[in-house]
Amino acid sequence: MSTSKGTALVTGASSGIGATYADRLARRGYDLILVARNQARLEELAARLRTEAGVAVEVLPADLANQADVLTVERRLRTDAAITLLVNNAGLGPQGPSLDSDIDYQDGMIAVNVTAVNRLAIAATDAFAAKGEGTVVNIASVVALIPEMFSATYVATKAFVLALTQSLQAEAAKAGKAVKFQAVLPGLTRTEISTASASPSTTWTSPW
Q1: In this structure, are residues 87 and 8 in contact, taking their beta carbons and an 8 Å threshold?
Q2: Which of 25, 158, 172, 196 to pair with 138, CA 20 to 30 A apart?
Q3: Which residue range(s) make up the domain with 65?
Q4: From edge to edge, which strands make up the β-sheet containing 135-139?
């Protein structure tokens, strides 16, 4: 008899916070759908978790800066009745201060940190509300609370994630929908996003 708690879909699951969520959820009995751009890393993580945690793990490669890929993940959230938990973790970090930086990169960051997060959170909420249960976990950042201390566009994206989570919770509660929400506000965390976000042409430093 299966002891699964349902399926958790985790975005940005190939490394860092997303991979840690995947590991912990698997060990708590969740089957997994792992979403990220790097299929090789997803496959490696999936194989390890199948062996160590004894759960079913599916890999769903997707670049959430690409609208077609976002729509693929959204459709999965809306149609897969086994999914009971979304971890909206995928995100891009800043390359430095927003002024005099690459505006195209900032647009890409907004696409991943705001547009994709919004579509997936709403899709999951709609699906969970319809079946009467489910949880949405959105990964924001502590910088959402101290906007003057970090890169403007990045901070704005994380403030959006926090406000979105709070507002969706209020909307679901008013509608009597049994959906749970959590916004996670990590501080500076040693992951690849912090390394990849550092620009070699600037002396940009974090506030911590």
Answers
A1: yes
A2: 196
A3: 7-196
A4: 57-61, 31-36, 7-11, 83-88, 135-139, 180-184
Q: Which residues contact 147 (CB under 8 A, 6 or more apart)?
A: 155, 156, 159
Residue 206 lies in a domain: no
Domain contains 161: yes
User: pLDDT tens-digit profile of 118-162?
Assistant: 999 999 999 999 999 999 999 999 999 999 989 999 999 999 999
| CATH code assigned at 68 | 3.40.50.720
Alpha helix segments (H runs only) across the chain: 16-27, 39-53, 67-79, 103-110, 117-131, 152-174, 192-196
Residue 162 lies in a domain: yes
Closest CA to 62 of 79, 49, 75: 75
Encode pLDDT of 162-202 as tens digits: 999 999 999 999 999 999 999 999 986 555 554 444 433 33
Cα–Cα distance between 48 and 71 in angstroms, integer? Answer: 28
What confidence score (pLDDT) does residue 191 get? Answer: 53
Read off the pTM. Answer: 0.89
169: DSSP letter:
H
